[in-house]
Design a protein that fits this description.
Chain lengths: ~270, ~270
C-alpha cells in the first residue's frame, strides 16, 4: 500500500530510492493488530523531525495499517516513510509530499523466536561510521548493515555484533545488545551510531519496574569477554539470551528471568486502535 | 527506463529503496552521447564490486543509454544500479538480480556553468561519518549530503564544503575540492569518506599532462584559509574556480588557466559508442 492506494511500486524519482532519504519501522503483527504501535510511530516521528520530513498524521497512518493487518494473525509489517519526489539533486523540494509505504511479510522462522533456546552471535568485521545527526533513528541508509550481514551465511548464527571505528560495541546488524554484570546490566550509548530499538526502550521500562539496574554508556568491546551473560533484542524476535559469541560461551541463566518474561510478553502485545 | 523497459517505477521491495543498497552515476549528455562514459561505468563497476552487486554487462547498459540519449543535445543522465529485489532483511538474496534505472533530467541552470565567473561556497555544519568500506564509491546512502544541502537556500551559493568529525576537509555536497598553493595543488584523500568524482580523476590526468604538481593527502580544514585559490569539480558543472568561501575571498586567477581549459574541455566531451 503506497500513500493509501493498493500499489506495490514507487516512482524512480522517489528520494527514498535516489538517496535513501527516509525512515522505516519493522513491526510484529499479532491477532490483527500491530504490536507496540505507539512506540514505533513515536520513533518514526522523531526520525522525521530529525530529517525534516513532514510526518503523516497519526490517525491516517493508523487507519491504513488497520485496513492492511485486519484478520492477519501473524506477520511482519514494514512501514517506510520517504521524503517523496522532488527531482535530481540533494536539495529537498520546497513543498515536500512524503511517500508512505506499508508492506506485509511473513514472520521470521519460529526457530529463532523467543520461546527457544539461547542464540549464537558472531562479531562483524564491518564497522559502523559515526554520525550523531543520524544516530539513533531508523533511516534508510543501511549499507553498513547490508555489508555486515553479508559476512556470514550459516543459519545457526542469529546476528552479528558491530563496533565503531574506536572499538566500542554498538549493536547487532538487526538487534540491540545488553551485557549482564554482577552489579547490573549495561547497553551501549547510541548517540554517535546505531539504532535506538523500540524493544531496547521496552527493556528500560521493564528493568525500571523490576528494580534491575540498567545503564547506557560507552562499552569498549573488550567488555564482551567480561560479561556474565549477553542478550539481544529486536521487535520481531523479542529478547533473546545469547549462548555463544564466536567461540565464547555465556551462561544464559544469568539473564534475569523476570526481565526476559516481561519483555517478551510486552513486545508481542497487539495494540488495538483507540 | 528500468531494466531495459520503458517504465518510471520500481517495486517497493527493491533493496535500493529498502536500504539504499545500490549505486548511481550522474552523467552529462551532449550531442546525443554521454560524456566520459567509460570513467562513469568504471566507477560504477568498482562500486558494484565493493558492494558485491553483479555489474550489468557494459555493452548492454551502453546500448540502453544510447537508445535513451539519441538525439538529446543537452541533458543529465542518472544511472542507478541497485541490488534488486529480495524481501525484507539485510541479508542479500542468494541469487541477485540487480535493477538498472536510467533517467533523463534537464541540465543544471547555465548560470552555475563553467563559462561563468567564479562561484561562492559555504562551510557546512553537517559532517561526514567515516567508513573506509563505503568511502570513494557513489552509493545510494546519501542522507549526510541531503542534510548538508538543507543548510542553505540562497541560490548564489553553488555548494557547501564538508569536513569529517576530525576536522579534515573532505569534499562539497556534490563536488570535489582542490586547494591551490604556491608549490602545487592539493586535494583531500578520500579513503575514509567522500566520493571519488570522475572529474576529480580528470583533473589528475590533465595536471599530469601539464606538469602541474597535484597531491592527494589529509587536509586539515584550516588549510582552506592558507590556500591562494580554490576550485571544485563535478561531472555536470566541470571545474569551477571559487571566488568566495563564507566571507573569505580567493583570487580565482591563481587557478592555472591551462588546467581549467583542459578539464572543462574534457569533461563535456561526448563519448561515442565504440
Amino acid at each position: 500500500m503506497v500513500n493509501g492506494q493498493e500499489r506495490a511500486v514507487v516512482s524512480i524519482e522517489d528520494r527514498g530510492l535516489l538517496y535513501g532519504d527516509g525512515l522505516f519501522e519493522t513491526i510484529a503483527v499479532r491477532g490483527g493488530a500491530p504490536c507496540r504501535w505507539s512506540a514505533h510511530f513515536a520513533r518514526m516521528a522523531r526520525g522525521a523531525e530529525r530529517l525534516g520530513i513532514p510526518c503523516p498524521d497519526a490517525q491516517l497512518i493508523r487507519s491504513e495499517v488497520d485496513a492492511l493487518v485486519d484478520g492477519i494473525e501473524h506477520a511482519v509489517l514494514r512501514l517506510t516513510l520517504t521524503r517523496g519526489g522532488g527531482g535530481r539533486g540533494y536539495r529537498a523540494p520546497d513543498v515536500q509530499l512524503p511517500t508512505r509505504i506499508l508492506a506485509l511479510y511473513p514472520s521470521p522462522a519460529p526457530e529463532v523466536g523467543p520461546n527457544n533456546s539461547a542464540v549464537q552471535l558472531r562479531l562483524c568485521h564491518t564497522r559502523l561510521g559515526e554520525n550523531p545527526l543520524l544516530a539513533g533513528i531508523k533511516h534508510l541508509n543501511r549499507l553498513e548493515q547490508v555489508l555486515a550481514r553479508s559476512e556470514w551465511q550459516r543459519p545457526e548464527i542469529t546476528d552479528g555484533l558491530m563496533t565503531d571505528y574506536q572499538g566500542h560495541l554498538i549493536c547487532g546488524t538487526m538487534t540491540n545488545v545488553f551485557l549482564v554484570f554482577d552489579d547490573g546490566i549495561v547497553t551501549p550509548a547510541l548517540d554517535r551510531c546505531g539504532v535506538v530499538g523500540t524493544t531496547r526502550s521496552l527493556v528500560f521500562e521493564c528493568a525500571a519496574v523490576l528494580g534491575i539496574p540498567l545503564a547506557e554508556r560507552e562499552v569498549p568491546s573488550a567488555e564482551l569477554w567480561r560479561a556474565q551473560a549477553l542478550f539481544v533484542t529486536n521487535s520481531l524476535l523479542g529478547m533473546l539470551p545469547v549462548a555463544r559469541l564466536e567461540s565464547w560461551e555465556y551462561d544464559d541463566r544469568a539473564v534475569p528471568a523476570p526481565l526476559l518474561a516481561r519483555v517478551n510478553q510486552g513486545v508481542f502485545q497487539p495494540e488495538m486502535p483507540t
